[in-house]
Design brief:
The structure is a single chain. Helix content is 47%, strand content 15%. By secondary structure, the protein is an alpha/beta fold. It has three domains: 108 residues, Phosphohistidine domain (Glucose Oxidase, domain 1, 3-Layer(bba) Sandwich); 107 residues, PtsI, HPr-binding domain (Enzyme I, Chain A, domain 2, Orthogonal Bundle), CATH 1.10.274; 305 residues, Alpha-Beta Barrel (TIM Barrel), CATH 3.20.20. The strands form two sheets. Strands 1-8-7-3-4-5-6-2 form an eight-stranded mixed beta sheet. The protein has an eight-stranded parallel barrel with strand order 10-11-12-13-14-15-16-17, surrounded by four helices. The two termini are 34 Å apart. The chain binds phosphoenolpyruvate and magnesium ion (MG). Phosphoenolpyruvate (PEP) binds next to β11 and α17.
Amino acid sequence: MSKTIKGLSASPGVAIGPIWVYRPAEIFIDDGQTKQPEEEWILFLDATATARRQLQALEEKARHEIGPAEAEIFAAHQMFLEDPDLQGMIEGLIREEMLNAPAAVQNAVEGYAGAFEEMDDAYFRERAADIRDVGARLIRCLLGIDHDLNSFPDRPVIIVAEDLTPSDTVQFPKEQLLGFCTMRGGPTSHTAILARSLGLPAVVSAPVDLDFLQDDTTVILDGGSGQIVIDPSKGSLAEAEKMQEAWLAAEKSALAAAHDPAITLDGQVVEIVANIGNLADAHEALEKGAEGVGLFRTEFLFLERADMPDEEEQYLAYRDIFQVMGERPMLVRTLDIGGDKSVSYIGFEEEQNPFLGWRGIRMMDDHPHLLLTQLRALLRAGAGCDLRIMVPMVATKNEAEFGRSLLEKAQTQLRSEGLKQAQQVQYGIMIEVPSAALMAAQIIDVVDFFSIGTNDLTQYTLAVDRTNERVAHLGSPFDPAVLKLIQMTIDAAHAKNKWVGMCGEFAGQPLAVPVLLGLGLDEFSMAPTAVPGVKECIRRLSAADCKVVAEKVMEMGSADEVRAYLEKQ
Ligand code: PEP
Ligand code: MG
């Protein structure tokens, strides 16, 4: 009998076909004690060398078969593998706690991955899965277990699994893959990222019961809605086939036109830029047709290390990324840590409500040298670029002024030291705290632009912790309360002839585009993979019609009502 299951959308598209349930070999570790710590340590070093060779081979495979950004996943795995903190923990467990090597790896990796899971940012939380993947690889190397893909069928299948690691995902023969469905993982897990890069539909967090699923059962997997239908009726199959045809045709035409500008039917040109977090993302952004960067999250340089990167190290890292973008817009967000995304080299204390705590610009008030160093590095690396700098988590006009004063201080210092720096730098703030949106008409006087961060703006407006799955359904950016704050922000900036961008996930959702365009949003920034689809969507809209849509939506009373109306449109 047909059964429908609802998970989360991880990669759009429709797949129809037989399933194959992936059940990786279970690993059993004995009681874990040893009397020969030195021998266990040598076993660990050998396993690390084997794991390193495997990861290098996977990096090559990913580079040839998928792309440079995906190869970076395995380069990052090598970094986790060689991480001195992790190795130090393992050594301590072997030499002091007398654990054998597999037990020491298991314990250390769990502790390390757990620390990532505590972080506020979904991206970093999901890196816990990568750390566990590296740990499982090390344990397999220690126990001499091969990755068992021998039973992979010789026909195209939809893979269903409790969870998939990036290594699993890359090792499956890609010509036999129709789509993925996992019980665990979020939309920013690497499996989801890989599925998107492969252009395969994927659903995550789907409550399927693997014990009752038979290989070869036919399913419809709708990656866009996050729905899977097991054993569908003939009618559902026919309908899904039509949807699949339409999706394939739309994908083809969006990709073919990815490098053309996004111009509405009535001639309005819309700036489409990308959110990036590292060098590989910058390359991917250009490949997918982004016209620049609308959010460069700089945290990658600061996390997972024991001390703060100095100005020179930051300068070199930023310069490499800025060079990829050339003269295209490059909007950088200064360090956004604090709350529960902490680093060891600044004095963090336990907080009851970390999201309402010491975070973003608030932390810089106590550590201005941190922001000043970063600003100096950015200005130096940005010489010759269209550099835009913004600060996160601003709640008041004072904080916006504070950021600007530090930027000016950095500019003056560099000038007096005779160092080259970016010219005509635009300064802005993220609008992600409701008070900043409410005060936008006053704050606009001290900035050149706003960029709306709907991920946090939604959490703070609706009092919905963005990391709490239990209340996640209550926090939608389609809620008219959030839309009203977006409207206030845009109106306040336009009244002073300044521009507004959006770098929250909302800007990359085709369903939101008509409303945002109608409200007058000037710049849309999104994950690189969303660029072709959003550009295509804008080309089918008229800015004048979108104004009417936005006005209608502003009168509605709930997120559901807004969504239903937009879906009908
Ligand atoms: C946001 O809050 O919308 C945003 C883009 O920032 P982050 O997701 O990094 O908090
Ligand atoms: Mg944010």
